[in-house]
Amino acid sequence: MSSSTTRNRAAGTGQYTQLATNPAGATPTYTAKKPRKPLIDRLADRAVALLWVVAAAAIIIYTDLIAIYDHPELNHTASILALVSFGLATATFLYLSIYVPRVHKTAVDYAQWQRTAPNAIPFATACGLSGFFCSAVAMWPIFGLLALPMLFVLFMGFIVVVSIF
């Protein structure tokens, strides 16, 4: 028996009646929209997001990160593991954002992900962390300690780009 209903035994009808959920007995009211942030806060958020993307692009351009795969000091095993890990994380993102809503006709509630997608979010997190670790190991012989802040900025730029979708 639900906590919000009870059997109407006095009337002997066997039907359920709705119980009041608050002391006043009134039904709760819900607002349809969240209040919007002020314009200056929204512009500040966009400016910070743009700075992360510009910083990530600058790292890619000025370190010639695309051509790093041919560098003789690159740890190729770790770089391949990093690419596989990031590929799995991206596939999980695409599964949750495109496949599930369009094929299964259900939306994934990210606020309640433990119920709607219990294994997908932890799997993507583990893939992202292993990709970050493998990237750091792969790039360490080339960039040294600078590999960690570079990867962090690249990660933040990636997150900002993904949040657009």
Beta-strand proportion = under 5%
Question: Helix count, per DSSP?
Answer: 5
Gyration radius from CA atoms, angstroms: 25 Å
Give a short account of the largest sheet: 2 strands, antiparallel
SSE string: EEHHHHH
Mean pLDDT: 82
Number of strands: 2
What multimeric state do the chains show? single chain
Shape: flat
Structural class per helix/strand content? mainly alpha
Topology:
Layout: E1 5-7, E2 16-18, H1 39-62, H2 76-103, H3 113-116, H4 120-143, H5 147-164
Antiparallel strand pairs: 1-2
Helix pairs in contact: 1-5, 2-4, 4-5
Transmembrane segments: 43-68, 80-100, 120-140, 146-164
Keywords: Membrane, Transmembrane, Transmembrane helix
Organism: Allomyces macrogynus (strain ATCC 38327)
